[in-house]
Automatic annotation (TrEMBL):
Taxonomic source organism: Nostocoides japonicum T1-X7
GO CC terms of this entry: cytosol
Cofactor: Mg(2+)
Keyword Transferase attributed: yes
Pathway(s) this gene product operates in, as recorded in its UniProt entry: Cofactor biosynthesis; tetrahydrofolate biosynthesis; 7,8-dihydrofolate from 2-amino-4-hydroxy-6-hydroxymethyl-7,8-dihydropteridine diphosphate and 4-aminobenzoate: step 1/2
Enzyme nomenclature, EC number: 2.5.1.15
The organism's place on the tree of life at top rank: Bacteria
Protein name listed in UniProt: Dihydropteroate synthase
Catalytic activity: (7,8-dihydropterin-6-yl)methyl diphosphate + 4-aminobenzoate = 7,8-dihydropteroate + diphosphate
Domain Pterin-binding: 3-260
Enzyme class: transferase
Length: 269
């Protein structure tokens, strides 16, 4: 099966690749509509920037940013995922018609999140996370990054199932760029099959991340976020071959091309 394409709508003033661009609700809704028209299967709406060093918005601010956008995109027929670490925001988004929760903390940041997901019988993306953006890069310390990310995600599965979440509802995500150095990200990508091998659906979110800006370039000559879609297409082709369920991206057309090419390679005799 072709991996699903999750298109990103960040309703934030400061997300690292597109912060501020879709901050007005009208612009965010228009962006979501465009992503849908381009072939996105899911629209991921988020109101909190998780770029390294970012400070958190208030709950009210996060609700004001996201809920009108969720409501409008659901009205257009979109399958919407809410990118939040807060159970109150997730609950409001589900009430507004969102059908899944994308929690970059995998239920760690808010103790009410696992119970909410269990009660609502929705899918949850459990991403590997070691702490809030403000100081997460100090936690980028691993002996064996693949084994540790895998084990920590298994811990999230246990906690979520313990709270009543149906195991089949849990989608795993290695959390590229979250408490990871560039080297950690490359190793996780190379060994993505170790995660898909756990038997859960896997989501990969490499789109426009900093490690794609730096690779092969000298300091000062990095690709800027908007120049990273070709590099992203390559990582998503690789993720497709590794058997991911979905990829989370900013640019849908180049992603669909990458998936088509990867699948042709896979299907060739
Ligand atoms: N990355 C970002 C935000 N949300 N959610 C999941 N599940 N996986 C990710 O890798 C992920 C995410 C940060 O990227 P952005 O600022 O471009 O949205």
């Amino acid at each position: 099966m072709r991996p699903l394409v999750m298109g990103v709508v960040n309703v934030t003033p400061d997300s690292f690749s597109d912060g501020g661009v879709w901050f007005e609700p009208g612009a965010a809704i228009a962006r979501g509509r465009d992503l849908l028209a381009q072939g996105a299967d899911i629209i991921d709406v988020g109101g909190e920037s998780t770029r390294p060093g970012a400070l958190r918005p208030s709950v009210e601010e996060e609700l004001d940013r996201t809920i009108p956008v969720v409501e409008s995109l659901v009205g257009l027929g979109a399958v919407v995922s809410i990118d939040t670490m807060r159970a109150t925001v997730a609950a409001a988004a589900l009430d507004a018609g969102a059908s899944m929760v994308n929690d970059v903390s995998g239920g760690l940041a808010d103790p009410d999140m696992p119970g909410l997901v269990a009660e609502r019988h929705v899918d949850i993306v459990a991403m590997h996370w070691r702490g809030h953006a403000v100081d997460m890069q100090t936690r980028a310390v691993y002996g064996d990054v693949v084994a540790e990310v895998r084990a920590e995600l298994e811990g999230r599965i246990t906690a979520l199932v313990g709270a009543g979440v149906d195991e089949r509802r849990i989608i795993l995500d290695p959390g590229f760029g979250f408490a990871k150095t560039a080297e950690h990200n490359w190793t996780l990508l190379k060994h993505l099959d170790r995660l898909t091998g756990l038997g859960h659906r896997v989501l990969a979110g490499t789109s426009r991340k900093a490690f794609l800006g730096r690779v092969g370039r000298d300091a000062g000559h990095e690709r800027l976020p908007l120049q990273r879609d070709v590099a992203t297409a390559v990582t998503n082709a690789y993720a497709t071959l590794a058997g991911v369920w979905a990829v989370r991206v900013h640019d849908v057309p180049s992603t669909l091309d990458a998936i088509d090419v990867a699948r042709a390679i896979e299907a060739a005799p």
